[in-house]
Automatic annotation (TrEMBL):
Designated name of the protein: IclR family transcriptional regulator
Domain HTH iclR-type: 10-72
A Pfam family annotated for this UniProt entry: IclR_C
Gene Ontology molecular function terms on file: DNA binding; DNA-binding transcription factor activity
Domain IclR-ED intervals: 73-260
Keywords, sorted A to Z: DNA-binding, Transcription, Transcription regulation
Source lineage: Bacteria, Pseudomonadati, Pseudomonadota, Gammaproteobacteria, Pasteurellales
Amino acid sequence: MQNEAKNTGNQSLIRGLKLLELLSDYPNGCPLAKLAELAELNKSTVHRLLQGLQAEGYIKQTNTQGSYRLTTKCLNLGQKTLSSFNIIHIASPYLEQLNLTLGETVNFSKREDDHAIMIYKLEPTTGMLKTRAYIGQYLQLYCSAMGKLYLAYENNSNYVANYWQSHQKNIQQLTKNTITDLHLMQQELAEIRQIQFAMDKEENELGVVCVACPVFDAFNKVEYAVSISTSIYRLKKMGIDFLLSEIRKTALLISKELGFMEEIPV
């Protein structure tokens, strides 16, 4: 009986954490019915779990009846986790300088299994475009500039094909430019390795582009990436060469802080 209760408790914990993860994709709230569908659980089970999370202060109901969202208690936990990452203290001065130089949104992410996670972001200082991305957000690898860098520099030669197969339900045509064909993506990744930067060419949202460069560590691995987000209009106005030179410079400075010893080819 004791083992049975323990297993039930573990299952409830895992399900509750899954609900928190799902809610993180819905900053304005998600209806109970939608949560139940996404979690593949019945509504009564989800409602019971939500009541427990609400009692502990991790979620709250929105103004829309039956809809829930995360609270700042989750943000507090996330900030404590991020503050323990020494990489933030190392990278932030360089990212702040990039933000001042270009005036555009600056993003910094970490590779985490089959996702990228946004761990630092600076809003534009002169550019008008403010993106929907937020610190703690999980980014899909196939359609984000930083995500494509992680795919391109993955050491396992079978990883991309395996990723494509296991994430079929997530690989969607978000815009007319989104790459959903494996062969086309492999061509794109080969080019990224050659030119050593990646772009989101309006693949998430029309009119919005992202340019990203890899951050190398002492073992030449790419666990972090830096990018800027801007409008297609601003990109054409400033020119890709100018933007890229500044982003690449920033990525190289952070790479050297992590022990990277070689010059990144330009």
